[in-house]
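During the second half of the funding period, the structural biology subgroup turned its attention to how the target accommodates small molecules. The most pressing case was pyridoxal-5'-phosphate, which had performed well in the primary screen but for which no bound structure existed. We therefore specified the complex as follows and requested a full 3D prediction, including the ligand pose.
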Amino acid sequence: MNNDIDLRSDTVTLPTPAMREAMAKAPLGDDVYGEDPSINALEELAAKKVGKQAGLFVPSGTMGNLVAMLSHCQRGDEIILGKRAHTFLYEGGGISTLGSVHSAQVWEQPDGSLALDDIQAAIRPDDVHAPRTRLVALENTHNRCGGTFQTPAYVASVGEFAHARGLKVHIDGARIFNAAVAQGVDVKELTGPVDSVTFCLSKGLCAPVGSVLCGSREFIAEARRWRKHLGGGMRQAGVLAAAGIVALNEMVERLAEDHARARRLAGALAIHPQLVLDPGSPATNMLFINLAEDVKMDAAQVAEKLSARGVLVGVTGKRRFRLVLHYWISDADVEKTAAVFGEVLA
Ligand SMILES: *Cc1c(COP(=O)(O)O)cnc(C)c1O
C-alpha cells in the first residue's frame, strides 16, 4: 500500500500478514470436485457463524447475490428490493439479464429498511398479468443509505411477514458483521430469520478476494449449480479461502475499532462549518458528508485537492462524499484527514 490515506472504500484493504501466511500454507485441492480442504473449512465455518446448514464460496458479493436470487427464483418471478439496493443499482441488472427475473423496487426508509406496508403493497396478485412475487431482498448494512444497520427485531418481522405469504427472504449482508458488531449482537440474530445471506470477506474483513453465500443444504446445492453455470467454479482457490478463514476468526470483533474511528473522524470534521454531516452518520464504518452551500468548489474539485495531499475519498454526488474506515486507517490518519480537509476548504 502506498502512503495515501485511502478512505474511498473498505474494498481497498490488503490482506494482513496472518492472511499471507495462511495463504502460503493452505492445503489445496480441486474445489469443483469438492476436494479443496481450505474451501470446505471456510464454507463450514461461515455457515456455522451465521447459523445456516451450508455455505458456498464465491468470487464476489455480486455473484453471491446473483446465484442466491437465481436459486430462489424461476424465470418470470419478481424480487421485492430497495430502490437504492446494491443489487438494484450496482450489479449490472444481472437478475434480469442473466436470470429473466424482474424487480419490484420499493423506497427504503432512511435507515435502509423496507417498511412492511411497502412490501405488502408490492406483492403481486395471483393473476396472469403479473409476475410472481417470490423473494424479498434486504441489505444490511445498507450502503447507499449511509452504512445504516437493521436490527434483529426488524429482520425477524420481515422473515415472519414474508414466510406467512409464501415468500423467501435473502439478505445482501456484504457488511453484515459490521451490523452485528455495531449493535453488539450475535450475527445469527440477523441471519436466523431469513433463508439466505451473502457476506463479503474482502471488505472490512481484509481478505483479498471472495464472499460466502449461506443457506439450507438444499438451497446451497442449487446455488452450487448456478455458480458453476456462471463460471464461478474455481479450482485450487483454497489459497483465497485460507485468508477468508483468518478474516472470520480474527477480523470480526475488531470492526468496532473502525466504527469508533468513524465517529472520531465525524467529530473532527464537524468543526469545519463548510462540511455538513448526514444526521445520525456514522452508524457503522462509513460517513457521508456534504459540502455546505457557500463552498464554491464541488465535491470532485475538493476530492482532487485532498488527493494531492494524500487523502483519497469517495465522491458520491455533486456535493457529497463517502469516507470509509477500515483496518489500514489509524488514529493518526483520522487526525491528518481532518486537518487536510481544513487546509483544502480554508
Ligand atoms: C460491495 C457490496 C456488494 C458486492 O460487491 P462485490 O464487489 O461484487 O464483492 C454487494 N452488496 C453491497 C451492499 C456491497 O457494498
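Two results from this model are relevant to the next phase. The first helix runs from residue 17 to 25. DSSP finds 14 helices and 13 strands in the chain.
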